[in-house]
Design goal:
single chain; about 625 residues; alpha/beta; Rossmann fold; six-stranded parallel beta sheet; 30 strands; binds adenosine-5'-triphosphate; binds magnesium ion
Length: about 625
């Protein structure tokens, strides 16, 4: 049996707009609730099939094809054929990516084969679909040794209309793109190797584990689910995969905090809900949610994703449930919205004011009525070291044996500085963070270079500070310790949380030496977030100063090298969150550790013991 990885082309639910090439301005034909698939006809041409809601099928031969996939992450792509263009939208982004990948490779493979004589084709009376497309395999990649593929991604600015290209223009563009790609390679990889590498990433990316696949299956079955697990079990990683498997128009991706939302390219739950802090009366909240743009949004939600649900306040969650029912005019729990909740209640709890009683989301009737499935992920991915995993597991449950405490204390003296990168101090209090960062910057010689964020709406700067992970002003000097706040290139280690030090300035950017060994020029990035139901942007360097970081802000992150000070820990789960950001005991330095700072909330322990028989 062939055990090599295969990429099976999925059937993709979407909306397709078929436009005649000769008349690109026309609306063409719009097929809603369509499903697209690939097949082959009797000549072994690759065929794209569109099945409409009433099972009507139309097919397009893909002999000459060009794919625009600039917006594929939003579930959109345009396939340009000789006589028409197919504009695909509202597709689950990951399924669409797999589909486009298969399409481009299969068409490229086909182009290598001897074409069927026109006479033969003319003699055939009718085009028959003979078979489904076979999965893409590593053999296919090998066969593509001297062909890059037919796909192109010409740069098109947002808002600029798609233009039908004549053949000459097409050729020029393809040549220019090939040249640019070669230039980008820095003489490293040939286009063939690039094509192969790109497919290999698809064929064998980090695969989901069985327990993660199980969660995905439950999500796709439409059930409301809460999946939990200790830090680093891949909850947010899986969540990103889930987002890619759901239709974008009806899926809302949120998290309890701005920084956690950034990890999954979502928005905060508060910003999505549109009911302010939720502290107002239910009637006032409903009034807010019934504003025209918001009510439209509430009515369109089918899947609501919430990461770091442990920090969602119970009262807020309860109000949200009522708002969902009332705005959607239904008595179904949560207005019939599928909830996809994820987080670890043994990490940070909801923030409450002094004197207020804490109520977790799971303590509400709204949770009882809406969440039908609870799953625990058990395999830890962030750390590989068994000893460290065992220590963390104890701390999560609020315990710490004398051996574990001794092991953690033993890290206090180890050297984890490397190539000028010093570990980030994780602080319990935000004031300490500001103070350490400012003092350390002042100590560096020279005057700072200031990078001011460009916000699409300057009046929303405060909200953008909350909703994006990057500050409105960055004062930087050579020697500044920084943390990357965006996944720029996962394969090279340029991921959210990567630590580095500034070694130079470049026009409009900075030069950074990263702990992963990469030296990279970093320029401004655009962050797009929803604020009061409109899209706003912040353009800023994707970094933060990282001599110090708050434990609250670090929740959800994987950090390269950290120093933890827990003397003033005040919150249940705080020590656990701080320690579990590190990948290994070797990249961690724990100062002033005492077992008193290890605390787990008894209410949460009781909840977990109740739902998981084998829990601690
Ligand atoms: N199936 C997998 N295969 C390989 N790596 C994985 C897998 N799942 C997750 N990871 C990696 O493990 C690390 C931790 O994942 P992630 O941040 O999603 O964990 P988490 O459960 O959300 O943690 P936290 O509770 O701290 O938010 C990440 O670097 C992620 O890329
Ligand atoms: Mg997470």
């Amino acid at each position: 049996m062939d055990s090599s990885p295969k990429l099976i082309c999925p059937e993709v639910p979407c909306i397709v707009q078929v436009q005649p090439a000769k008349n690109p301005g026309s609306k063409g034909r719009i097929i809603k609730n369509a499903k697209i698939n690939l097949g082959r006809n009797q000549f072994r041409d690759v065929i794209l099939l569109i099945t409409s809601q009433n099972s009507e099928v139309c097919s397009f031969t893909l002999n000459a094809v060009k794919v625009h996939k600039n917006f594929i992450h939003e579930g959109k792509a345009t396939i340009l054929l000789i006589n028409e263009s197919l504009m695909i939208s509202n597709a689950p982004p990951r399924s669409l990516q797999l589909f486009v990948k298969t399409l481009t490779f299969k068409v490229a493979l086909q182009a290598k084969k001897t074409p069927i004589a026109s006479r033969c084709r003319l003699l055939a009376t009718k085009l028959n679909l003979t078979e489904e497309i076979s999965p893409l395999t590593s053999k296919d990649i090998a066969a593509l040794s001297n062909k890059v593929g037919t796909e192109t991604t010409p740069t098109r600015k947002k808002g600029q209309p798609l233009k039908q290209l004549n053949t000459q223009e097409n050729c020029n563009r393809i040549e220019a793109i090939k040249k640019r790609r070669l230039e980008m390679n820095n003489g490293g990889m040939s286009p063939q190797s690039q094509a192969r590498a790109s497919l290999k990433r698809f064929l064998s990316p980090h695969q989901l584990t069985e327990e993660q696949k199980n969660v995905l299956t439950i999500v796709l079955s439409g059930k409301s689910i809460f999946f939990t697990g200790s830090a680093g079990t891949g909850k947010s990683y899986l969540l990103r995969r889930i987002v890619g498997s759901l239709p974008p128009d009806a899926t809302f991706v949120t998290a309890s905090t701005g920084i956690a939302a950034c990890h999954i390219d979502g928005t905060t739950l508060h910003s999505f809900a549109g009911i302010g802090s939720g502290k107002a009366t239910l009637e006032q909240c409903l009034e807010l949610a019934r504003r025209p743009t918001l009510i439209k949004q509430w009515k369109s939600v089918k899947h609501l994703i919430i990461d770091e649900v442990s920090m969602v306040d119970g009262d807020f969650f309860e109000k949200l449930e009522v708002v969902a029912r009332k705005t959607r005019d239904t008595d179904l729990p949560f207005g019939g919205i599928q909830l996809i909740l994820c987080g670890d209640f043994l990490q940070l709890p909801p923030v409450v004011r002094r004197g207020e009683t804490r109520r977790y989301a799971f303590q509400t009737a709204a949770w009882e009525n809406s969440v039908s499935k609870i799953v625990e992920l058990k395999q830890v991915h962030r750390q590989a070291d068994k000893e460290f995993i065992k220590i963390l597991s104890q701390i999560r449950s609020g315990r710490c044996s004398s051996e574990s405490a001794a092991r953690l204390k033993s890290t206090a003296k180890q050297t984890i500085e490397k190539d000028g990168i010093i570990p980030t101090i994780l602080c319990t209090h935000t004031d300490d963070v500001e103070h350490i960062n400012m003092r350390s910057l002042d100590k560096l010689p020279g005057t700072p270079t200031v990078f001011k964020a460009v916000d699409s709406d300057p009046y929303l700067t405060k909200q953008l500070d909350q909703l994006t992970s990057v500050p409105s002003t960055l004062c930087l000097k050579i020697g500044s310790q920084i943390m990357l706040m965006k996944n720029l290139d996962i394969s090279r280690g340029l991921v959210n949380g990567a630590r580095g030090v500034i070694v130079g300035f470049e026009k409009g950017g900075i030069i950074v030496n990263f702990a992963c060994g990469v030296k990279e020029n970093i320029f401004r990035e655009r962050y797009v977030v929803k604020c009061s139901n409109t899209l706003v942007t912040r353009t800023q360097l994707p970094i933060r100063l990282a001599w110090a970081f708050s434990i609250h802000k670090s929740q959800g992150m994987t950090l390269d090298c950290v120093e933890v000070t827990l003397g003033r820990a005040f919150e249940a789960g705080q020590a656990y969150v701080a320690l579990s950001r590190a990948k290994s005991l070797n990249s961690l330095r724990v100062l002033d550790f005492s077992t008193e700072c290890v605390r787990a909330d008894a209410v949460v322990l009781a909840f977990y013991r109740d739902i998981f028989q084998d829990f601690y």
